[in-house]
Amino acid sequence: MKTQQLTCFLMSVALCVVPSSARADGEKLVTQIVNLLSNPDREFRAAALEAVRSSAKGTSQTQTFAAELPKLDAEAQAALIAALGDRGDVAARPAILEQLAGSKNEAVRAAALAALGEIGSLSDLPALVNALGSVSNAEQQAAETALVRMRDVWVAKTIVTDLRTAPPEVRSKLIEILAVRRATSEIPAIIAATTDTDSSVRAAAMNALGLIGKPEQLAAMLPGVLMASRGGERDNAERNVAEVCERIENENERGDALIAALDTVDAGKRDELMPLAGRVGGQRLIRFVADIASSSDASRRTFGIDALSKWPDAGPADTLLEIANNTKDATERRQAFHAFVKVCASRDNRNDQQRLDRMKQAMKESRNADEKTAVINRTRTAYDVESMRFVRPWLDQPEFCQIACETIVELAHHRQVRDPNKEEFDAVLDQVIKLAKNEELVERANRYKRGETWERKK
Amino acid sequence: MLDQAFEALKTFDFGTPLSDVEAIDDAALAAHEDAEVRKDLEQRLIAALGLGISRDAKDYVCRKLALVGSAAAVPALTSLLSSAENSHLARHALERIPGPEAADALASAATNLSGKLQVGAIGSLGVRGETKAVGTLTSLLKERDAMVVRAAALSLGLIGGNESAEALQTAMKSSSADNNAVIDGLLSCAESLLSQKKTTEAAAIYTSLSGNEQPRLVRLAATRGLLTCAEV
């Protein structure tokens, strides 16, 4: 009996002693950390913050650290909030919300918003969404980061609900957040936003689809393209549709998918979408667009030629030349010929000699000064000394002299073209220096002669 | 092939293509799996060191002995420790050859040599983590040559353990020691104690370095150490 009692006593001592010693160590650590949090030296504070992030685990410890917040200055508060966020213990949330509600310091509020991304709950979403419209960039950014990082599966759904009521600048940010979260389940809501009345919302929706859209959604994206204003917004919308098309590996299947999507659009508006075909490219689409570019309806032909001019490679070059040579309309001839020269000059998979050969062909086919100027101008994309030799004679003709100067300087810009033929380039650059009216061209020519580089202005 | 390579070693010098001695490299690789090859190669390398070969050839041999050397190679390598030209690569080999012979050779050099050669030997004892050399290194902490004291303190730090820590703590109290080197050594000791979960001993070192009389960066390192101790 006595042995049993002794054993029980020893066991109870052991059970009490070990945890209390561990507890004492833990308390010591927490005390050390807390003391360091208010250290005036930021590196000592950083040591404490690192400990807040990764050690002294436990809810009560988290609460002890969070309780320090009101005692610190704003800089230290912001740093501690960030560390508590990284610690990932929701026990810090009430103290952080208190700072968010009460602090007038931007950095503190931004840190609190960002921390909610780690330890916040669905009930914090209104505050975060609200902060997206804040006048403070830091707070906007922090709220955005938090909304991207929040792990709750309902976050995306709640964001979609907010999409209906939020002001436009917030709506576009919410859409960006959905895209970064790769919220593919919410694509229908994003598609709906492609025809929003606000252009920034439409653009954000198209960008989001460019990031997470799937080929099945191509047809649904087209009303957004039609709704986009001509110019930058339309370009952006088309680019995003092309991005989605690019997710189909096979070129023909890609073309078929776009054609199928175009077929869903009202015939009267379809031609307006032809530039899309140009952005996507491929033989299947060349035929599709070429039919439109050579149809009997002049306005349809314009759309078709415009589409072919945007082709990413020289694929439709012969088609465009044929249109240019067969048309009797001078405007159409101009449009088609310029498109022909443009695609011939594209820096696609062909080599520079092939590009130059196309330029020589274009020069032969040219009929007036405007067309010759276009050819001389575009020859700059064939990085070969032969291109310079091709353009050089035009320096002697006043009508083409300035554009020839430009092209020669652009060719000389490429060291790999210039250096192996330095003597020849120096001679032609001397001519440029004498003839060019543009001071920048003269300066560039001089620099290249001296073997220097030139930084293109942005 | 190996015979040819050793023949080539006799005239090997700076600029000689390494392909001339490639067979020795191959043998050194093969030696990892074949004790006989290892022994034979080691003997050939030891013999080569006695042939009056060039400095670069000796360096090459030392590098190979670092891979295949044993106690048998220690005398030949020891003879190079006093050579300003070859001591570095000889130490490179001795740092890697297991067994007390190499350690004894370095400990002897650490007390008998002078200047940079002595400092090198002291450093090699630290690299080896030679706990038996703690006594020798502790006595070197009292030397007048600051380079020697510094090297000894750093080596004690690399060796780590309570004995090294005690020696360094004592040295820190004496005004003659290079305090920065002693502190570096102590911090290294504390880290090695921490890695062995000897937090009480490590914390004692960190506490001794966290006072206001210490430079800011030392206090910072000690503070970080103390936080880690409390965490472990």
Query: Can you name the CATH architecture of one domain in chain A?
Result: Alpha Horseshoe
Largest interface: pair, residues per side: A-B, 16 and 9 residues
Number of beta-strand segments of chain A: 0
The structural class of chain A is mainly alpha
Return the string of H and E elements of chain A.
HHHHHHHHHHHHHHHHHHHHHHHHHHHH
- CATH topology name of the largest domain in chain B: Leucine-rich Repeat Variant
Helix content of chain A: over 70%
Written as H for each helix and E for each strand, in order along the chain, the element string of chain B is HHHHHHHHHHHHHH
Helices and strands of chain B: which structural class?
A: mainly alpha
How many H/I helical runs of chain A?
28
Full CATH superfamily name of the largest domain in chain B: Leucine-rich Repeat Variant
The CA-CA distance between the termini of chain A, in Å, is 92 Å
Structure description:
The complex is a heterodimer of chains A (458) and B (232). Chain A is elongated and about 90 Å long. By secondary structure, chain A is mostly helical. Chain A starts with a helix and ends in a 9-residue tail after the last helix. Chain A is built from 28 helices and no strands. With 232 residues, chain B is mainly α. In chain B, 71% of the residues lie in helices and 0% in strands. Chain B is elongated and about 65 Å long. The model of chain B has no long low-confidence stretch (mean pLDDT 93). The chains are: A mainly alpha (458), B mainly alpha (232). Chain A binds chain B through residues 25-26, 28-29, 32-33, 36, 41, 43-44, 47-48, 50-51, 55-56, and chain B through 216, 219-220, 223-224, 226-227, 230-231.
